[in-house]
């Protein structure tokens, strides 16, 4: 039969609107009435579908707003303010040097900020207070490990690492902010850039083992914190355990399926939204 040749139909964002696995997340963990501000209809469709394909609970998102970058935030791609439930998407996200994976990765990153384990109002996303506390502890260990080994997760993490310990007026950030960004960056990378994350893990482990060999006091009493499993493992390891809970899936295979879909969406729908005039 010749029909089999036609199965490679590309998925459009409309196809992601009815994501059956999205239904697995309980109703009360989602906001069915997110408002969209300053977006054209096409832009709004893309954002809606991106949020849906990301598949994280949306209860804490009240509205999504598009904004032009200013001289003060010229590198920002997205931001979240949990005080008013706003998520912002900046014009920089539509620039051609931002890859499709980075665009959807940003949506994932901001989504994680809205359900952070560092907020005790978020217990039910994690199933219980105990699990949320465990996730918080894990994210702190990952952040500390980047500090100790001197190896950040990505470029943005490197800039945050450099800002740690500086005064606020010199662009410094608090350790709390560093923890929450680590949580979002780690999750984003596992969902949309797992190859880079594996490389980071290898490099951190090599440095860590070398420091142990030298009896460096900063690694004494520390166990190496795994970031994720390798591609050959079928176990949920490191951040994968957290993401499996947030996505309400049981296995690494199911989680991988989610991430495949996210990356596929990104490739096939490389954001029509930002470049077009509003
Ligand atoms: Zn962030």
Outline:
The chain is of the alpha/beta class. The protein has helices at residues 41-54, 100-114, 123-126, 129-149, 155-163, 175-192, 194-213, 239-247, 252-268, and strands at residues 35-37, 63-67, 78-81, 86-90.
Describe the structure.
The protein is α/β, with parallel strands linked by helices. It folds into 2 domains: 10-117, no CATH class; 121-251, no CATH class. 46% of the residues lie in helices and 6% in strands. It is built from 9 helices and 4 strands. It has a 4-stranded mixed β-sheet, with helices on one face. β1, α1 and β2 (63-67) form a beta-alpha-beta unit. The radius of gyration is 19 Å and the shape is globular. 35% of the residues are buried. Residues 1-11 and 13-20 have low confidence and may be disordered. The site of zinc ion has 4 residues, from α2 and α6.
Please outline the helices and strands:
Layout (H helix, E strand, L loop, with lengths): L34 E3 L3 H14 L8 E5 L10 E4 L4 E5 L9 H15 L8 H4 L2 H21 L5 H9 L11 H18 L1 H20 L25 H9 L4 H17 L10
Helix pairs in contact: 1-2, 2-6, 2-9, 4-6, 4-7, 5-6, 6-7
Bound molecules: zinc ion.
